[in-house]
Amino acid sequence: MSNQVEKECRKCPLKIKGFHIEPFLWALFGNGGTIAAMIFPVVVLLFGILLPMGIYDPANLFDNLHAFYGNIIGKLIIFALLAFNLWHACHRVYHATHDFKFHPPLWVKFVIYGIALIGTIIVFGLLF
What we know:
This protein is mainly alpha-helical. The protein has helices spanning 3-11, 22-38, 40-50, 58-70, 72-99, 106-127, and strands at residues 15-16, 19-20. A two-stranded antiparallel ribbon has the order 1-2.
C-alpha cells in the first residue's frame, strides 16, 4: 500500500481491526438508489396519476394491495423498499455535508446512520 492509502486507513474512524463499515453503507446506499430509480416511479404513476384520473379502479387496488401485504414475500418487499431508501437518504445527507464543505465530527455520522437504523427497526416492527 502507498503511504497515502495507509494514512487514510489510519484516519478512518469506523475501522474495527481491519474491518471497514463504509462498503456496507455504500451497498445499502446503492440498493436504495436503485429502488428509488426503478420502483418508486411506478408507485408515483399508480397513486399520483392513474388513481386520481380514474384510470385504475380503487376497489381492485385495495384487494390487490391487501393480498400483497398479507403475504410474507410482500412484507419482505415492502420492508426492502422502505429500509433501503431510508439508508440511501441518510447516506446522501451525510455525504451532502461534505459537498457543502462541512466535515462533521464522528457523532454526527452516528446520529445520521442511527436514524436509518432506528427507522429500519420501526419499519420491521410495523410490518412483522
